[in-house]
Amino acid sequence: MPQHITNTTQLTCDKGTIPTPITVTSQSFMSIEGKLQATEEDKQPNTNIKPFGLCSVLRSSCTPSPVKWDNTSDFEIEGKKELLDSSTCQCSVGGKISVIQSAQNFVKE
After folding, report:
1. Of 83, 41, 84, 99, nearest in space to 66 by CA
2. Which pLDDT does position 107 carry in this prediction?
3. Is 34 exposed, middle or buried (CB count within 10 Å of its CB: 0-12, 13-18, 19+)?
4. Using CB atoms within 10 A of its CB, is residue 60 exposed (0-12), middle (13-18) or buried (19+)?
5. What is the DSSP string of 19-62?
6. 24 Cβ neighbours under 8 A, 6+ residues apart
7. What does the alpha-carbon distance between residue 6 and residue 62 come to, in Å, rounded to a whole number?
8. Along the 109 residues of the chain, how does pLDDT read in single tens digits?
9. Strands 66-70 and 96-101
10. What span, in angstroms and rounded, lies between the C-alpha atoms of 18 and 30?
């Protein structure tokens, strides 16, 4: 079952060399375990998504250029769809941004 992603969830780009955490700025009241939930509007370069090291396409700094989040939740926060651990975002340079693992801690029974 897909899980919602929250502030500091690690993202990766398949054309980058290092992961980076997402920074949620699209909303300020819906949270899980004290961390804001990410939405499809959390896609601004250097604000929500930091560089991913070196880009294998550009052969230079892997500064993200996100286009649109796909595979989002059907639920919305203030009209913005929530991101899930299965959500992906195409980069206009050619890479694909995805979630490494959710920042949430789940209790296993």
Report:
1. 41
2. 42
3. exposed
4. exposed
5. -EEB---S-SS-EETTEEBPBTT---BTTTB---SEETTTTEE-
6. 6, 7, 35, 36, 37, 38, 39, 42, 48
7. 23
8. 788 999 999 999 999 999 999 999 999 999 999 999 999 999 999 999 999 999 999 888 888 999 999 999 999 999 999 999 999 999 999 999 999 965 444 444 4
9. unpaired
10. 28
Q: Name residue 91's amino acid.
A: C
Q: Which amino acid is at 75?
A: F
Is 20:95 a contact under the CB 8 Å cutoff? no
Tokens of 102: 């959710």
